Amino acid sequence: MSHTAHIPSHRKPRRSASKMALRAGVAGGVLSTLAVAGASGTASAAEPVAETAALPTLTADLASQSAQAADATQQRAAAYELQATQESAAAKAVKQAKKDKATAERKAAEAKKKAEAEAKRKAAAAARERASRAAERTTLSTRSGASTPAPAPVSAPASGSVASVISFLKAQLGDAYVMGGTGPNSWDCSGLVQAAYRQAGVSLPRTSQAQSTVGTQVSVSSAQVGDILYWGGAGSAYHVGVYIGNGQYLDAANPSKGVVIQNLSGYPASGAVRVL
C-alpha cells in the first residue's frame, strides 16, 4: 500500500457513465425543446404571410355582404316609397271624393233653392193675377152700383169691320196690362176691346160688366170671329176678350202676360155676345 493512499486526492471524482448519460439526455431534451421552440417561432413568424394571403377573400366576402345589405335596404326603401305613394294616392282620392260630394250637395241645394224661388215667383204671379181680376171685379161692381147709362145702340158694321177689329187687336200683342189702361201702349181688358171695336165704328161701354150685355147673347160653342167673350155672369162679368177663331181669343190678360192670344180650353169663357 502506497504511503500516500490515505491522503485525499485533490482531483475531482470522475462522473459515472449513468450520470453522464442522464445529463446528456437532459441536454438533448433542452436542445430538442429549443429546436421545437425555434421551429414554432419560425412557423409563427411565417403565419402573417398566410393571413395576408387570405385577406382578399375576407374582403370579398365583406363586400358581397355589404352589397346584399345595400340591396335589401334599397328594396325596403322602394317598398316604403311605394306604400307611401299608395297611401298618398288613397288620401287624395278620399279628399277628392269629399270635395265632389260637397260640390254635388251644394249644387243640389242651389237647384232646390232656385226651384223653390221659381215656384214662389209663379205663385206670386198667380196671386197678382187673381188680385188684379178681383180688383177689376170690385171696380166693375162699384161702377155698376151707380146709375150706369144704357149702352148705345150698336149700328150695323160696314163690310170688313170684323177684320179691322182683329187687325187692331193683333197689332197690340205684347203691350202691357195696366189696370184702367186705354192705350196706346198699355191696356186693361175692357179698354182694349172698346178701342178695337172703335176701329169698326162701334161705340162700346167702358167696363167688362157693361160690355157683357151689349149685342146678342150667343153660346161660347157657337161663337164667331169678332164676338166678345166674357168671364163671369152677363152684367157682372169681370173679364172680356175677343174670339179670333180656332178655339182662341185675344185679350189683355194680366200684368204678368200683357196682351196675348190664348186658348179657350185653358180658360173657358162663361158666355159671348155678338155685336158685329
List segments where confidence is low: pLDDT < 50 over at least 5 consecutive residues: 33-46, 48-53, 140-159
Could you name the CATH topology of the domain at 100-143 and 159-276? endopeptidase fold (from Nostoc punctiforme)
The dominant shape is rod-shaped
**Overall helicity:** 55-70%
Number of helices, counting only DSSP H or I runs of 4 residues or more: 4
What is the strand content?
A: 5-15%
Through-space gap between termini: 212 Å
Q: Looking at this structure, what is the CATH superfamily of the domain at 100-143 and 159-276? A: endopeptidase domain like (from Nostoc punctiforme)
Average pLDDT, all residues: 77
Order of helices and strands: HHEEHHEEEEEE
| Total strand segments | 8
Radius of gyration: 66 Å
**CATH architecture classification of the domain at 100-143 and 159-276:** Alpha-Beta Complex
Task: Please identify the top-level CATH class of the domain at 100-143 and 159-276.
Answer: Alpha Beta
Strand order of the largest sheet: 3-8-4-5-6-7
Q: Give the helix/strand class.
A: alpha+beta
Main beta-sheet strand count, sense and barrel state: 6 strands, antiparallel
Textual characterization of the structure:
The chain has a domain at 100-143 and 159-276: endopeptidase fold (from Nostoc punctiforme) (Alpha-Beta Complex), CATH 3.90.1720.10. 56% of the residues lie in helices and 12% in strands. It has 4 helices and 8 strands. A 6-stranded antiparallel sheet has the order 3-8-4-5-6-7. Helix 2 packs across helix 3 (189-198). The longest helix has 129 residues, at 17-145. The protein starts with 16 loop residues before the first helix and ends with a strand. The relative contact order is 0.08. Mean pLDDT is 77; it is low at 33-46, 48-53 and 140-159.
